[in-house]
Amino acid sequence: MFVLICGSGKVGVHLVRSLVADGYEVAIIERDEDIGRTVAEHFPDVCVFSGDATESSVLRHAGIERADVVVAAAGDDKDNYTICKIARRMFNVPRCVARVNEPALHDLFRAEGVGAIINVTAMAAQAIESAVNS
């Protein structure tokens, strides 16, 4: 299974580590060339592409046309929405997973056909509430 991850911040890097360990083929698109080089050094079996993942030409260059899953893991909700929109509408990617910071955007992502919406803010609040109540 081929997974294309857009964004290699802390979330993206942890995800890459797990997916590679589980035997997935992984590629990353990273906007910042310095970060991309660092990620490539740590994960020599992962293709790292420099560029803006909100641009269809960059997504195509990274192999989106054969992706089974696209993970929009950038820190910006607007970018993640755009990535998922392009992946679903232009490239018919079967499954999109999006990191979302603003809970109010959940329905917007769902309407675009995003299969899994990881709401970082809500998850953190739930974990804190659980810790307070235990």
Secondary-structure topology with pairs:
Elements: E1 2-6, H1 10-21, E2 25-30, H2 33-42, E3 47-50, H3 56-61, E4 69-72, H4 77-89, E5 95-100, H5 106-111, E6 116-119, H6 120-133
Parallel strand pairs: 1-2, 1-4, 2-3, 4-5, 5-6
Short account of what is shown:
By secondary structure, the chain is an alpha/beta fold.
Please provide a written account of the structure.
With 134 residues, the protein is an alpha/beta fold. It has one domain: Rossmann fold, CATH 3.40.50. It is 46% helix and 22% strand. The protein contains six helices and six strands, in the order E-H-E-H-E-H-E-H-E-H-E-H. It has a six-stranded parallel beta sheet with strand order 3-2-1-4-5-6, with helices on both faces. Strand 2, helix 2 and strand 3 form a beta-alpha-beta unit.
Q: What share of residues are in beta strands?
A: 15-25%
Separation of the first and last Cα atoms: 39 Å
CATH level 3 topology: Rossmann fold
The shape, in one word, is globular
Question: Which descriptors would you attach to this protein?
Answer:
6-stranded parallel sheet; alpha/beta; 46% helix; Rossmann fold
